[in-house]
Amino acid sequence: MSRALVFDAIRLPRGRVRRDGGTLATEAPHRLFAQLLSALEQRLPVAEHVDDVVVGISTVTGEQAGNLARAAVQYAGWPEHVGGAVVSRLCCSGLDALATAAAKVVSGQSGVVVAGGVESMSRVPILSDRPAIATDVELGERTGFVTIGVSADATAAAYGFTREQLDAYAAQSHRRAVAAPVSDSVVPVRRGGEILLATDEGARADASAEQFASLPALFGDDPAWERVLRRLPGLEKPESGLHSIATAPQLADGASAVVVASPAAASVALPDCEPVAEIVAATHRAVRSPLLSAPVDAARDALQRAGIGTDDLDVVEANESFAVSPLLLTRELALDPVRVNPVGGALAVGHPLGATGGNLLVSALDSLRRIDGEHALITIPAALGLGSALVLRRLR
């Protein structure tokens, strides 16, 4: 059987979405992803040999519709034979793109694939596509759809996490993000000769659980709780909400790109390059919506398929889709908290939806290099009870 080898993994810095537009609000999503394609060609000349480009996007509407992947390939001036496709699994879209690339390579459908994701939440806000799950009452009732913030509160209540635990975790995320080393895997965003953004925005050195405890809860009075309790009749609604703006992921713009190739294709396309990692397993699972616990099941499945246990994990990147997500994964898999999100996460520096899967792979690989580790687990939850997981093995 062939293997899905990773030869490079890069991302853009995450730019915060602000009311005044934010640092990256001037950049259309195709430009964001095209900048990574141009950077890849400088770092690892491979465009001539790429069979396909697979891009994860959560909100596929407006400027993010119309096969952005192919448009970005052409905008970047890559060869005309290079195709492009978009995959969308809500917040899991970026991991889905990586899983798709790995599957294409392992199956022999493609030799070299660039996979990643992009999301300009400044220009294409979440739910701006007005999906039926959010606008059709009957469909919403059948699927259990509620906004992911209400899902996060319901999950925290179902598993017994307190407001204090959530606030403490968020403060830790900021501290770790502030202390994170600079990485050459982060490509500055440029406009002409000007650098618009070189590092992630959002992390606060002064963040504390005490500060966060004073913030109002966001979802305690949300009328969607009525649907939650109909779907999960045994759940006891907390007296007040559990997550605040501090324990919710910051909205962000960003993009990520990963070069995945089979050994045979790499011998031709990249004869002088050694792979840096290997995607050894990728899984998708679902649970009854609106719970966000599917990444736990997906992670167990991915570890089993990879043939390793939790003790073999050197790094875990559990997307901070809300504070409950990494806390739940850590507890249910009995993970070492020190190894979970060692450089912080979305609570501090943002969750640009479709780009996040690739962002987490970049962070995982950087962390593995720093500690000379071998295996990393990456997980992301999404609305409608979805969850994805990926196991990465570092080779050098």
Question: Any overview of this molecule?
Answer:
The structure is a single chain. By secondary structure, the chain is α+β, with helices and mostly antiparallel strands. The protein is built from 14 helices and 12 strands. The strands form 2 sheets. Strands 1, 2, 3, 4, 5, 8, 9, 10, 11 and 12 form a 10-stranded mixed beta sheet that branches. Strands 6-7 form a two-stranded antiparallel sheet. β11 (375-382) and β12 form a beta hairpin. α1 packs across α2 (68-75) and α3 packs across α14.
Indicate the proportion of strand residues.
Answer: 15-25%
The major sheet is characterized as: 10 strands, mixed
Q: Based on Cα principal axes, name the global outline.
A: globular
DSSP strand count:
12
Distance between the termini: 22 Å
Task: Describe the structure in brief.
This protein is an alpha+beta fold and 396 residues long. Helix content is 35%, strand content 19%.
Write the layout of secondary structure elements.
Layout: E1 4-11, E2 15-16, H1 29-43, E3 52-56, H2 68-75, E4 85-87, H3 93-107, E5 112-120, H4 132-135, H5 137-143, H6 148-159, H7 163-179, E6 189-191, E7 194-197, H8 209-213, H9 225-231, E8 252-261, H10 263-269, E9 277-286, H11 294-306, E10 313-318, H12 324-332, H13 346-349, H14 356-371, E11 375-382, E12 386-394
Parallel strand pairs: 3-4, 3-5, 10-11
Antiparallel strand pairs: 1-8, 1-9, 2-8, 5-8, 6-7, 9-12, 11-12
